[in-house]
Amino acid sequence: MTTSQSDHTEAGAQRSMDQHHHAFELPRIPELLRHALPRFVEGVIAPVAVFYAAFALMGLNGGLAAAVAWVYGGLGWRLFRGHGISATLVLAALGVTARAGLAAFTHSAVIYFLQPTLGTLLVGMAFLASVPLRRPLAQKLATDMVPMPEAFLAHTRVRQFFLRISLLWSMVLFANVTLSLWMLFNQSIGMYLWVRTGAVAALGAAAVGVSVWGFKRCMRHVSRERAAVGALAA
After folding, report:
1. Cβ–Cβ < 8 Å for 98, 90
2. What are the transmembrane regions (predicted)?
3. At residue 8, does pLDDT exceed 60?
């Protein structure tokens, strides 16, 4: 084999390796929705409906008892179906129990709903802090859901994208907290539950849409750039 043939073979192998590192498939939107929608209904809509129905019929303590029963009923259903229960779910159940107990003791629904709002504030602060640290939290969460090649993640455009999306999500979460606190202290529990839940869901859906659209656009730019580099190397 001549030197030029060897160089051409090595260049082809390198391009193949680069393509392998950069080529991965993002799940389609309908697939993501089919995966996320049941969990959204189970984790967001149903608990609100259960709490409010019991609250309207039996008062605060009835609503709190129903909320706790819903959580432990979900754990029992997973055990019945042979599904494992993660430590995260157990901690979440214990957290709901503690919140409900404290709310019942203080006779205040505000106490029950205040804790998750403060948790949202902390998450928003984590997203914001990850931007100047150049360790975007959005990238960590995205790679947990969709494995991505290290070469792709190291691309400058990709890193900039995840920094901007981390900033976006921090703003979304802060808006969530602001709306939640205002409604919690100024509106009825019914208004808080339904208007706040709908508004937060709409805001989150819009942010997800922007994130997915931006990521697809980023992928197209990176793919075109790699194709151009490959064409020049050939």
Report:
1. no
2. 49-72, 84-105, 111-131, 161-185, 191-215
3. no
Judge residue 128's burial from the number of C-beta atoms within 10 Å of its C-beta, 0-12 exposed, 13-18 middle, 19 or more buried.
Answer: middle
What is the domain count for the chain? 2
Of these ranges, 2-16, 45-59, 93-107, 158-172, the one predicted with the greatest mean pLDDT is 158-172
Do 100 and 169 lie in a common domain?
Answer: no
Supply the DSSP symbol for 194. Answer: I
Is residue 9 assigned to a domain?
no
Question: Whole-angstrom Cα distance, residue 97 to residue 67?
Answer: 9
Domain assignment present for residue 224? The answer is: yes
pLDDT digits 0-9 by tens, 12-42:
444 444 444 445 555 565 666 666 667 667 6
The whole-model pTM stands at 0.74
Residue 103 shares a structural domain with residue 135: no
